[in-house]
Amino acid sequence: MPKTPLFPLPDGLEITSASQTPEALLVRVTSTRSSSPCPLCATPSRSIHSYYRRMPADLPCVGRRVTLLLTVRKFFCRLKSCPRKVFTERLPELLEPSSRLTNRLRMAVQTMGCITTAQGGAYLTKALGMSISATTMRRSLHLLPMPSIERVRVVSLDEWAWKRGRRYGTVIVDLEHHQVLDLLADNSKEAAKAWLQKHPGIEIVGRDRGRTYADAATWGAPLATQVADRWHILVRRIGACVDTFQRKEGLRAKDL
Questions:
Q1: Across-strand partners of 44?
Q2: Are residues 92 and 75 in the same domain?
Q3: Which of 79, 151, 185, 239 has the fewest Cβ atoms nearer than 10 Å?
Q4: So what's the pLDDT on residue 2?
Q5: Confidence of residue 129 (pLDDT cuts 50, 70, 90)
Q6: If you ran DSSP here, which 8-state letter would residue 198 be given?
């Protein structure tokens, strides 16, 4: 079945067969392109070196997971001056090099991750027949391009866990447009201060009650108004209420 509207593929790819297992649908796809350009020098080559198979996941079908059994080729690069002698066939319309997800599945995962969270999106994908882990969800979100920064007026500074409990960075969010502006390598005062100094138009800085971001905002954006962000206020208020109730319950237990 070289073409089917139910399972669209880019030109040069054909479906050779389809089968099913109790867990997934297996779709065998073969590349029929006569040549492929070298990714280093862009010289087309027709000299086939060998064949190999990739097994990327694709969008689900009627709630069942779909896996492609993709047969592609390796080519010789015949340009003598090119340092790449053998290269693998690229299929940018379908998936990126070394990717285990097709482009259309990656976009769906990124959309769910942006709307929910990495963990919440992982639960949702299992219900939809994608079975994507929270780690893959986070990696997919990291692949999204950062928005271009023009004029920023209201920002929020907070810690970001690159590796929870070990390494933290700083996430900077545009609170007017609800977009992540940047992820800094660490959560130091110097890094946040340097970022703020590069954007002199900032008028309001939201932060937690710690000294790190308070000092960064004081020296990095001295004309900006500093406010405690709503999330930290709610967390501390809830914690205070819980402590109050626990103390009252303790006093009642002693009275009895």
A1: 37
A2: yes
A3: 151
A4: 62
A5: confident
A6: T
State the pTM of this model.
0.67
Task: Give the CA angle between residues 240, 242, 243 to the nearest 5°.
Answer: 65
Number of domains in the chain: 3
pLDDT of residue 1: 58
Separation in Å, CA 183 to CA 22, 65, 146, 176, 230? 42, 33, 9, 18, 21
Answer yes or no: is 91 within a domain: yes
Q: What is the CATH number of the domain that holds 171?
A: 3.30.420.10
Tokens of 152: 């920023």
Examine the pLDDT at 254 and tell me if it is beyond 50.
no
Residue 125 pLDDT exceeds 80: yes
Domain hosting residue 207, numbered range: 154-233
The CA R_g of the chain, rounded to the nearest whole Å, is: 26
Q: How many CB atoms lie within 10 A of CB 158?
A: 16
Which positions ≥6 away from 244 have C-beta within 8 Å?
none
